Amino acid sequence: MSDFVNKLYKNQALFYKVFLFVLTSVLIVYLLPKGGKFKYDIPKGKPWQYENLYAPFDFAILKTDEEVSAERQDITKSHIPYYSFDTEKPARVNKDALAEVNNVFPDTVLSVYETIIDDFVTKTVDDIYEFGLLQESDRLNPDQLVYLLKGNEASEVAYRRILKQSQIRGFLSEEISNAGFSSFRTELLEVFFNSVEPNVSFNNQLTQKELESKLNNISYTRGIIEQGSRIIAKGEVVEGNKYNILRSLKAEYESQVWSKTNYNWIIVGYSTLVALALLMLLLFMRKYRMSIFENNVKVTFIFFNIIFMVMLTTLAVSFNIDYVYVVPLCILPLTLKAFFDARLGLFTHVITVLLLGFIVPNSYEYMFLQIIAGIVTILTVSELYKRANLFISVGQITLVYIIAYFAFTVIQEGNIDDMKPEVFLTFLLGGLATLFVQPLIYVYEKIFGMVSDMSLLELSDTNSKLLKELAEKAPGTFHHSLNVANLAEAAANEINANAMLARVGALYHDIGKMYNPTYFTENQTTSVNSHDELSPRESAQIIIEHVIKGIEIAKKNNLPDRVIDFIRTHHGTSTVYYFYMKEKEANENTSSEDFRYPGPIPFSKETAILMMCDSVEAASKSLKEPTAVLIDNFVEKIIDKQMEEGQFLNSNITFKEIQMVKKILKRKLKNIYHLRIEYPE
């Protein structure tokens, strides 16, 4: 039992990776669509390269989007609107009009013509309200039919039969003239204008309800293909009706209700393919990025990003398939490049795009566009912390999307007439969404405890609180750190290491000297040496202690682990040689272990560069009259000694790269000491 527990403990990192691998596979398979996958690509405008295809079952032919859209427009255009007719208003208006007659006409006229005038008014009101009076004109075609709703009954009438408010004066004038009442025109017009009111109004609610009902009843199919019918022969060009039939077969195939057995087999197939894709990613990391593979936090971070992109794409497809390119997939390679390197970012991007091919329609087109965009992203964004670079890269990514989409449309349609301008807008939105990568990287740093170049740029600011404190308490050390940072940055650039990381590590590597600054020669401003009152062993412990103190200060100020690594390793396991030899003069049996730094030795190119630059810069202060030859021998001697002690065994740096670093250090030191040819006086 204890052996099993020990094995479990020793292999817990491996077990975690297996668990993460299985969990990621399950989540991705869960997000994938569960219908069957049509096994043929439909190459529009190209010959059918497969064998003759026969209908495997009965299925309906789907109408094209253009046909459905045209049908909807026809229905909308020919739809008959509803107008509501107020049946109570005519009687009320007639009563009011008769009352107005008594008010408007003088008694002398009424005594003779009251009955005739009342009859005329009643008849005219009836004529006005035969089909009703509409206040506003909708400017419909006069011959268009409309439904006039009286109570629960709707009658079909021509729109021109309904009297409009703007027509009432002309209508009344004509009626008065025809009746022979021209001498009473003014009084009669006053009667009607004081009493007549509109009683017809447009019924928008009922009109829209009827329209929606008709639109919902549109048939999206036309005709049926029977089982066994030949759909297309080998060599036939896929276009027109043939293309629509193949598209209909694909849609029917992928939307079929599968039996439980078939469904299970589909899950098995998806699981196998997803597992293979993720396994390739793990094998790539194990083969070429072992440091990342061994770090479970980094592996988790990579898998999380894949799941995140699959989930975003699934949401976009389920919401509206037209928005699939709004998902900023290029954030994935940008993020991984910021935290790791370009090759891992591109490889992960390709694996993710392959997985997304199961989700999106036109998968070949989608994968081509996204892989090309990912390559452009990796090639164009060199320094993510520079905002201008990111904006330029986003512009290039968007341009690549547009060019590739244009090319695909021309290939498929044979012209540019069917190109959809709204697709270009989705590309633009996707490009703008890519700008979200900077705040996203900040969130990732806080969640996963990693550091990107953007954070390193912030840390390299010498006005930061910690570096200002170092400059105040240990000005000599601060100046030394600046010199080492310049050397380390130049050396890292020469061998293609992370120059920003090397510079930041160099700036903070000696912050532990703030505790006892006067015990370090660069901070001693007087002739009094603080070590004169201490034994060599005590002095050595103070010197060694600056590494431990530096780690404590760094953690207290929340410096990233990648920066703390420089503090921890910049002396490796070397000895404090001066005080060791001084102690040995007094005691021959002195052990060098008592004067040795705790380590560990550098384990990256950047930390190895810092060790070389730190030792060379510090020791160069002892040179009295430096010459070019003296500096060359001096650099060779210091770095060769570090190599003999095995300080660079774990740092993955080659002999060639060490020689390149030596060359840079020699050149920089000669520049610092202003060595030049001596001209004769």
Automatic annotation (TrEMBL):
Keyword terms, alphabetized: Membrane, Transmembrane, Transmembrane helix
Residue intervals of the HD domain: 477-619
Keyword Transmembrane listed: yes
Coiled coil region boundaries: none
Source domain of life: Bacteria
Entry-linked SUPFAM superfamilies: HD-domain/PDEase-like
Membrane spanning stretches: 14-32, 263-285, 297-317, 344-360, 366-385, 390-411, 423-444
Signal peptide start-end: none
UniProt cross-references to Pfam families, sorted A to Z: 7TM-7TMR_HD (PF07698), 7TMR-HDED (PF07697), HD (PF01966)
UniProt cross-references to Gene3D superfamilies, sorted A to Z: Hypothetical protein af1432
InterPro entries for the chain: HD/PDEase_dom, HD_domain, HDIG_dom, Metal-dep_PHydrolase_7TM_extra, Metal-dep_PHydrolase_7TM_intra, PgpH_phosphodiesterase
Protein name: HDIG domain-containing protein
Source organism of the structure: Christiangramia forsetii
